[in-house]
Design brief:
Layout (H helix, E strand, L loop, with lengths): L1 H27 L5 H14 L14 H11 L5 H13 L13 H36 L4 H15 L2 H12 L23 H21 L2 H16 L2 H8 L4 H13 L1 H5 L1 H10 L3 H6 L5 H10 L3 H29 L11
Helix pairs in contact: 1-16, 5-8, 5-9, 5-13, 5-16, 7-8, 9-11, 10-11, 13-16, 15-16
Length: 345
C-alpha cells in the first residue's frame, strides 16, 4: 500500500504541471488580454466623463500600454513567465489579481464561506436522503412506493436548477406571489446583533431556496446507485445461505448486505464532497446573488484575470488529485480484499 501511495503521489506532479501548462498555453492565444481589458475600461470611464484615476488616451498611447505590460509581467518572454508561474505555485504563491489588486489567496478565502455553505449542505442533505431512500427502494422493489419515488426523483433530476430557481423566486421571493424568502446573501444585515438561535435560523432562511435548487437534481444518481448496489448484493449466494440458516430479513439486510453494498457509496464520499463545492453552482450563485468561487472563476475568465484563473485551477486540480488518492485508500479500508500494492506483481 505504501508503495502504491508513493507512486500515486509521484504521478500527481506531472498531472498537475500538465494541466497548468495546457491552460497557460491556451491563454496565450485568447484575444483581449488583461492589458486590453484595462484599456477598454479606462476608455469607457473617460467617455463617461470620469476624470479620476487612470485614463486611457487611445490605442496610440504606447507608454500606457508598455506600463501595463510591465506591471502585469507581459514584458518578459513567454518561457520566463511560465517558469515564474511554476516556481511561485511550488511555494503556493498564487500571485495578485490583475483586476482587483488583491492576493489570489485572499480572494479565494473571501468566497469560501458561500461555496462551503452551498457545497457542504448540498452534500449532506443529498446523502442523508438518497442513501436511505435507495435502501427502501431496493427492499420494496417493484412496489407502488418504488414506482412513485422513481418518478419523483426523475422529475427532480430533469428540472434544471436554474429554472427551478426562477420558479421559486417568482413564487416565494416577492416575484409575483409571496415574499417569504430573501434573495441576496447568506445572512441579513443585522445578523451580528441577533442571538445565536436567531443567527442559525437566519442563515438557513437565506439558504433555503439555493439549497433546494442544488439538492433536487442531485438525488437521482445516488438514489439509484444505492438501490442497484443493494439489489445486486441481495441476489448473491451468501445472502441466500444466510436466509437458509433462518436469519431474519432485518439481520440479513443490516449485518450482511449493508456493509458490502455501501462500499461503492462510501468510497465515493470524498469525490462527491469536493465536487459539491466546485461544480454546478455558478448559475445558482448568480441567480441568488451569492458571491462564491463559481462566480469568481467565471468573472475572472471574462475579465482575463489570469492569476485568479490559474490559481483557482491549480488549487482545484491539486485537491482533485488528493481526493482521488484518498478515495482509493478508503476503498482498501472498507474492503480489505482490495490490495493496490499487489497490482503488476
Amino acid at each position: 500500500m505504501l508503495a502504491y501511495i508513493l507512486k500515486r503521489i509521484a504521478l500527481m506532479l506531472p498531472t498537475l504541471v500538465g494541466a497548468l501548462t495546457v491552460t497557460f498555453i491556451v491563454i496565450q492565444f485568447v484575444p483581449g488580454g488583461p492589458v486590453e481589458q484595462v484599456m477598454a475600461e479606462a476608455r469607457s470611464r473617460g467617455a463617461a466623463g470620469d476624470t479620476g484615476g487612470y485614463r486611457a488616451r487611445g490605442d496610440s498611447d504606447a507608454k500606457q500600454i508598455e506600463a501595463l505590460k510591465k506591471l502585469y509581467g507581459f514584458d518578459k518572454p513567454v518561457h520566463e513567465r511560465y517558469l515564474d508561474m511554476l516556481r511561485n505555485f511550488a511555494t503556493f504563491n498564487l500571485g495578485n489579481s490583475f483586476m482587483q489588486n488583491k492576493p489570489v489567496w485572499e480572494l479565494i478565502k473571501e468566497k469560501l464561506p458561500v461555496s462551503i455553505s452551498l457545497g457542504l449542505w448540498t452534500f449532506l442533505i443529498s446523502y442523508l436522503i438518497s442513501v436511505p431512500l435507495g435502501i427502501l427502494k431496493a427492499v420494496r422493489e417493484g412496489s407502488s412506493f418504488d414506482v412513485a419515488t422513481t418518478l419523483a426523483v426523475l422529475v427532480g433530476y430533469a428540472i434544471p436548477g436554474f429554472v427551478l430557481g426562477v420558479f421559486l423566486i417568482v413564487l416565494f421571493a416577492g416575484g409575483t406571489f409571496w415574499d417569504v424568502f430573501p434573495l441576496r446573501g447568506l445572512t441579513s444585515e443585522n445578523w451580528a446583533t441577533l442571538s445565536w438561535p436567531a443567527r442559525v435560523a437566519d442563515y438557513f432562511w437565506h439558504l433555503a431556496m439555493p439549497l433546494t435548487c442544488l439538492v433536487i437534481g442531485s438525488f437521482a444518481t445516488m438514489t439509484f446507485l444505492t438501490k442497484n448496489t443493494f439489489i445486486e448484493e441481495m441476489r448473491k449466494q451468501y445472502v441466500l445461505v444466510a436466509r437458509a440458516k433462518g436469519l431474519s430479513q432485518r439481520r440479513v439486510l443490516w449485518k450482511h448486505i449493508f456493509r458490502n453494498a455501501l462500499i461503492p457509496i462510501v468510497t465515493g464520499f470524498p469525490a462527491a464532497f469536493i465536487g459539491a463545492f466546485f461544480t454546478g453552482a455558478l448559475l445558482i450563485e448568480t441567480l441568488f446573488s451569492l458571491d462564491g468561487l463559481g462566480l469568481l472563476s467565471y468573472e475572472s475568465i471574462l475579465r482575463r484575470d489570469y492569476p485568479v484563473v490559474l490559481g483557482s485551477l491549480y488549487l482545484f486540480t491539486l485537491m482533485g488529485l488528493v481526493v482521488k488518492l484518498f478515495s482509493d485508500v478508503l476503498y482498501t479500508l472498507v474492503d480489505p480484499r482490495v490490495q493496490f500494492g499487489a497490482v503488476g506483481r
